[in-house]
Amino acid sequence: MSLTPLLNSLPKAELHLHIEGTLSPALMWELADKHQVRLPYNSEAEIAAAYQFDNLQSFLDLYYQGADVLRDEDDFYRLMWEYLRACHEQNIVHTEVMFDPQTHTERGIGFDIFMPGFLRAAQEARQEWGISCYLICSFLRHLSEQAAFETLEAAAPWYPDITAFGLDSSELGHPPEKFARVFKRVKELGFAIVAHAGEEGPPEYIWQAVELLNVDRIDHGVRCQEDPRLLALIRERQLPLTVCPLSNLKLCVIDDLAKHNILSLLDEGLLVTVNSDDPTYFGGFLNDNFSALEHALGMNEQQLQQLIVNSFKASFLPEADKQYWT
Ligand code: ES4
Ligand code: ZN
């Protein structure tokens, strides 16, 4: 029997989502017209057709190019509002959303433009639908340590609106150790910490995220199974992994969803969650990721329920809220 009715009926949390990765071809097209930005496409359909990737970098190139249509406060509001509406439609009641300030500040668009847009949408979604939305400010790892420190400084007026700091973008050649001093400061400031590690990078990068950055969660982390000692540590500490199946498929981390190790990690007792990463680029929102696991891996009802319980357990919600939802 299909798990879709159960999937739709259960309240869920999403913990690994890049807001810039929710820009739909339709909104990109509309905003390009609004701001007279030249796109290398002749139609919305051409935008969608261009989303074929060989690896992480080939995706990031289009993702940063797409973000160039985001210019004013209302654009960032629209972006967040459309994502939160999609959450409502999927019964996502809590989401922890990453944003990449440097993608915007490098174009002269500051925190005073995008933060009010994000926060206005989040506040409206809370009032309309009771959705809670936390923000995770992510540093681009292909840029320098100095640039990350400057971003941390520029975010200071918005610290009350930020739950955690993260690390994303091109993984290979940019190991976590490059940002050890930045995250030491982040920790001193009292924020939670997440980092992409072990998506394309080796287990050594996951070790560094755990031991040098003191992460509270690992984004992706699917390559931890290559190192039994690392796997044992992650299990012992119950360090959550925010796994993104359709992302891994689209970016050729795996060549067939049937080979994904998410259920094997779950069976080994790891605190694994399912997430959509960049849903408009990877061909599916959160519920599409769950459905793909049902069809490609034969995920059963008990596994689905465990993955959803884990989404709250691994969140940064206060304990009382976690208990309410699980
Ligand atoms: C990302 Cl899938 C992925 N990996 C690393 N950085 C990213 N930024 C947006 N999506
Ligand atoms: Zn990601």
TrEMBL record:
The record marks 220 as: Important for catalytic activity. Substrate binds at residue 278. The keyword Amino-acid biosynthesis does not apply. It catalyses: adenine + H2O + H(+) = hypoxanthine + NH4(+). The active site is at 199 (proton donor). Its EC number is 3.5.4.2. Keywords: Hydrolase, Metal-binding, Nucleotide metabolism, Zinc. The keyword Zinc applies. Catalyzes the hydrolytic deamination of adenine to hypoxanthine. Plays an important role in the purine salvage pathway and in nitrogen catabolism. Belongs to the metallo-dependent hydrolases superfamily. Adenosine and AMP deaminases family. Adenine deaminase type 2 subfamily. This is Adenine deaminase.
